[in-house]
Design brief:
This protein has 335 residues and is of the alpha+beta class. It has helices at 16-27, 39-49, 100-113, 129-140, 162-168, 171-188, 199-216, 218-223, 226-241, 285-299, 313-317, and strands at 9-14, 54-62, 65-75, 78-81, 118-125, 144-152, 155-157, 192-196, 245-252, 255-265, 268-276, 304-306, 324-331. It has two domains: 9-152 and 324-331, Aminopeptidase (3-Layer(aba) Sandwich), CATH 3.40.630.30; 155-317, Gcn5-related N-acetyltransferase (GNAT) (Aminopeptidase). The two termini are 42 Å apart.
């Protein structure tokens, strides 16, 4: 049997806007976490925070076809994946399925040839193909690789129905969740979970999301600066336009009691941020709203619910298990 010839990869600098269409199409055939590796996310972030560092975008092609993308910020002698972990739960160098090893190897070969001796790849999910292929590529290209866990993104593999989900919880957590939902409903009656997806309805509802976010906790109020609000507004509108936003409100009698901003990731739902009316904190409105989102995700046929970054207690009470997020630093001796 004649072995299949490996494709030859070519790496070249690229412009964000001219590459955007191909980049989006690549993500449809990639195992990278799509929402945080989209060109629109990078564009909105750069615009909102007016980042003045040099941006280096590299396109990896095989026979003219885009097979991988990497977006870096130049910080002196350090090349760092673009983004900020304060608002990016993951970062990555997305590659086309079946080309992961070739793309990572080609990128490191190119960077070594160009004299980049310090590279930081932060935000890599433990399931990322980049994280999987990096050790071998680093060794082949003369880089020393240091790996540290920088965060966790607790998640739940969802069953087919709500009763099966409740059966997955341990006895204590199942009892507590049922008690919280029952106590909430006994206060003033059940609430309805309303999901918004369209651009116009999301834009009209965002002020209520911001109100609930800021009112719910002091640290959230401090987080939502005018610049951060500008970023969230553009992310909400653009992601809704692309069909990837789920803005949920828990409503009762026309009043919005809690909100959860989620991203639709194909067979998964990602809970990005939330808020609630502190008047209902005593009846666990925050936890109940997330449980209702989880229930909706199951009804919608989702296979996974990802709570994204942070080890908050409620995530584990709802049955989540940690998945690591890693920072990989590559260094080599200068030429």
């Amino acid at each position: 049997m004649v072995p299949t010839a490996q494709p030859r990869y070519a790496v070249a600098e690229a412009d964000l806007e001219s590459l955007a269409g191909e980049w989006e199409a690549l993500l449809d055939d990639s195992d990278a976490v799509g929402i945080f590796t989209r060109p629109s996310w990078l564009r909105i972030w750069l615009h909102a925070f007016e980042d003045r560092r040099d941006l280096l975008i590299l396109a990896v092609r095989a026979e003219g076809r885009l097979c991988g993308v990497a977006a870096f910020l130049v910080e002196g002698g350090l090349l760092r994946l673009a983004g900020d972990p304060e608002v990016w739960d993951y970062a990555d160098m997305p590659s086309r399925r079946g080309h992961e090893q070739g793309v990572v190897d080609a990128l490191l070969a190119y960077l070594a040839e160009k004299g980049w001796n310090r590279i930081e790849l932060w935000g890599l999910a433990e399931a990322s193909p980049t994280y999987r292929e990096l050790p071998g590529a680093a060794e082949r290209r003369g880089y020393r690789l240091d790996v540290e866990q920088e965060a966790v993104c607790p998640s739940i593999d969802l069953p087919a129905d709500w009763d099966s989900y409740l059966g997955m919880l341990n006895k204590k957590d199942r009892h507590e969740l049922r008690r919280k939902i029952r106590r909430f409903e006994e206060t003033d009656g059940p609430a309805t979970l309303v999901g918004l997806t369209g651009v116009d309805e999301v834009e009209a509802a965002l002020p209520d999301f911001f109100r609930l976010h800021v009112e719910s906790r002091e640290d959230k109020a401090e987080f939502m600066t005018p610049v951060m609000r500008h970023f969230f507004e553009h992310v909400g509108e653009e992601t809704a336009r692309e069909g990837g936003l789920r803005l949920y409100f828990m409503e009762r009698g026309g009043k919005r009691l809690a909100s959860v901003l989620c991203f639709n990731g194909g067979d998964s739902l990602m809970l990005y941020n939330s808020g609630y009316d502190p008047e209902f904190a005593s009846v666990s409105v925050g936890v109940v709203s997330k449980a209702l989102c989880l229930q909706r995700a199951i009804a919608d046929g989702k296979k996974r619910l990802n709570f994204l970054r942070g080890p908050e207690r409620y995530k584990y009470d709802l049955g989540a298990h940690d998945a690591g997020v890693y920072r990989c630093t590559l260094q080599r001796e200068g030429n």
